[in-house]
Amino acid sequence: xxxxxxxxxxxxxxxxxxxxxxxxxxxxxxxxxxxxxxxxxxxxxxxxxxxxxxxxxxxxxxxxxxxxxxxxxxxxxxxxxxxxxxxxxxxxxxxxxxxxxxxxxxxxxxxxxxxxxxxxxxxxxxxxxxx
Length: 131
What we know:
The longest helix has 11 residues, at 16-26. The chain has two helices and eight strands. By secondary structure, the protein is an alpha/beta fold. 24% of the residues are buried. The model has no long low-confidence stretch (mean pLDDT 92). The radius of gyration is 16 Å and the shape is globular. A hairpin with a 5-residue loop joins strand 2 and strand 3 (39-42). This is VOC family protein. It holds the Pfam family Glyoxalase.
């Protein structure tokens, strides 16, 4: 096996300025400008995500970033107050806040999905088994 030193993830956006504003001001993440017009998102608990410009960007049809929270109701309420609209998916029972309530051992954690300005799918989730 290779001697991996570090890992990080990346995602594309068509508008770096919109991404900077969303990830910094709306989500409250630590965002720094990186080389070649890119951004670096420092994630809670360690790790980071490279956000890079791609003018012909097409968002993925799956979740590209999950953010674990200690209280999903508070997190979703706060995000909605900041103008974030929760995404609703057919096949998932979601409550009035857009939260799919997990059933331990059956579905998984309580989770709510939303998109960034580029249409990338993100989530907040409360995972009681990880604490």
